[in-house]
Amino acid sequence: MAVQSTKKPLLRSVLECIHRFLHRSNSRRQLLDTIVTIKLEPADKIFHIHKGLLCHASPMFRAMMQHDWKEKQDGIIVLKDEDPEVFRRFMHWLYYETVLDINETIETISPQDLADCYFIADRRDVPAMQNHLIDLIMHKALTLASVLSNIQRLVWENTPENSALRKLLVDMMAFGGDIAQIFKDENEKDAYDKCFVVDVLIRTRTTPKLTGWDDFYERRCSYHVHNAKLPACSIGWREQPVEQDREINEHSSNWLQRP
After folding, report:
1. 230-255 residue pLDDT tens
2. Residue 221: what pLDDT?
3. How far apart are CA 149 and CA 239, in angstroms?
């Protein structure tokens, strides 16, 4: 899905970054306390992270370190089957609130890397990082039209049915994708699985009319995880029935009947 967007003036973006830093620096400094060891198995990789950052970001890690679990007593947390490079990006997010390295941009990071970072945030219960990745994936769609086909199957294999990322990809196709092309192009047929296509077809019946990508991005709150520490950040969708495309109905009926 290739879309256009109006970029924020550079000065405004810089001022926003400075404001966030000044607002958060004192509170985040208090989180730099005891160092804990994270051991990845079977990769046998070791990471050292401030316990306060882990506990602040994730209820799962907080439970490990606050109750009488083995992890609290030893100061060592063993994680199974985590990719070291993905975990390095997770650690980078803990300290810098972004998964992008210093010389990396949204244009250079791959959709697969963004998806992998979302998966670890989902598995380890880190909602603020999940929200960060949702925003980055939406931005990535501005620069790469094939984001959906690159990660759709990967997302369906690594997330639960109620995943916010699944919901985002469905809405991206329903709102801005060429749905009819999926059923007409032989190459496109194998890029998406049936569960995704069915979800998209259902969604097209309630997708609201939008003025453009900026309007869609403003509704990103619909795909975020929110709780007492992460209140809603913007407006969500207003559901309304829409007229179903006759061409899509004809092609989809034949496509869904294939083996």
Report:
1. 777 755 544 443 344 444 444 444 44
2. 85
3. 26
Measured in degrees and rounded to the nearest 5, phi and psi for residue 82 equal: -105, 135
Candidates 148, 239, 242; CA nearest to 191 is 148
Using alpha carbons only, give the angle 155, 157, 161 rounded to the nearest 5 degrees.
Answer: 75
Q: How many Å apart are CA 61 and CA 65, to the nearest integer? A: 6
Low-confidence ranges of the chain (pLDDT < 70): 1-30, 67-73, 177-178, 180-190, 207-212, 234-259
Are 165 and 129 a contacting pair, CB within 8 Å?
no
Question: Would you give the distance in Å from CA 172 to the centre of its chain?
Answer: 13
Whats the size of the chain, residue-wise? Answer: 259
Q: Which amino acid is at 28?
A: R
